[in-house]
Amino acid sequence: SVSAFLLNRSSDLLVAINLFKNALRSAYNTVKDLDAVMTETAVVTPFSVSEMWDKLPEYTQRANELGVSIHSAYESATIFYQQGLKTNEVVQISTETLKMARIAGLDAATASDRMTNALRGFNMEMDKLNAQRVNDVYSKLAAITASNTDEISTAMTKVASLAHNANMEFETTAAFLAQIIESTRESAETAGTAL
Questions:
Q1: Worst-scoring range by mean pLDDT, 13-27, 46-60, 75-89?
Q2: 137-171 b/e with 16+ CB inside 10 Å = b?
Q3: Does pTM top 0.85 for this prediction?
Q4: What 3-state class would DSSP assign to 173?
Q5: Are 193 and 176 in contact (CB under 8 A)?
Q6: For residue 19, what are the CA distances in angstroms to 7, 45, 49, 154?
Q7: How far is C-alpha 177 from the geometric centre of its chain's CA atoms?
Q8: What is the pLDDT of residue 60?
Q9: Which residues contact 193 (CB under 8 A, 6 or more apart)?
Q10: Would you say 76 and 112 are in contact if contact means Cβ atoms under 8 Å apart?
């Protein structure tokens, strides 16, 4: 009975040790991943990697508020920093972009590229109001048509600058794309190219 007791305790101890090792490995991988994304951000900003680590609480808070990973918050910011935006602009636009990513089920990089495409394609200022405008239009159209934000934003990548050059408004172009996608159920790329 004593040996059975000791055997159970040693088995419990081995399980605890394995759980601890797995937790350490996971923590190490998380820190390594965050350091890599912070290094990418530091390369395109005047901040050092250590300054990016100092900003971790800000990025963590934003990520928690938006329901995304901390990595996604840094990744989206990096894309907008690469475009030469200032920190306050980056925070505002990346926040709106991460909302779009969450709604559409997109990763941060894809959502950031699509937001950039819509804003730059229609020659809109890279600011919070226009980013909200893009989100609102995509969300509204997704709610009233048989299309979704992912499809509309994908289609928009094929036509934004051409539509703008033809004097089409962003809202009109997005509505046409949503209608084409809804009516034909063709791929978003096909809808964008067709328009």
A1: 13-27
A2: bbbebbeebebbbbbbbbbbbbbbeebbeeebebe
A3: no
A4: helix
A5: no
A6: 18, 39, 31, 42
A7: 22
A8: 92
A9: 158, 159
A10: yes
Taking residue 21's Cβ as centre, other Cβ atoms within 10 Å add up to 10
Helices (H) and strands (E) counted in the chain, each on its own, are 10, 0
User: CA distances (Å), 89 to each of 112, 123, 125, in order?
Assistant: 13, 16, 10
Signed CA dihedral, 124, 127, 129, 131: sign only: positive
CA distances from 54 to 92, 104, 181 (A): 19, 30, 45
Look at residue 133 and tell me whether its pLDDT is greater than 70. yes
- By CB neighbour count within 10 A (0-12 exposed, 13-18 middle, 19+ buried), where does 13 fall? exposed
Q: What is the DSSP letter of 126?
A: S
Q: Which tokens in the block code for residue 12?
A: 């419990």
Q: Where do we find the tokens 């996604």?
A: 72
Question: Which tokens belong to 71?
Answer: 């990595």
71 and 107 Cβ atoms separated by less than 8 Å = no
C-alpha dist (Å) from residue 195 to 73, 127, 165, 190? 33, 27, 13, 9
DSSP state of 137: H
Q: Which tokens is 22 given? A: 């797995």
Give the DSSP H/E element, type plus range, for residue 159: helix 149-165
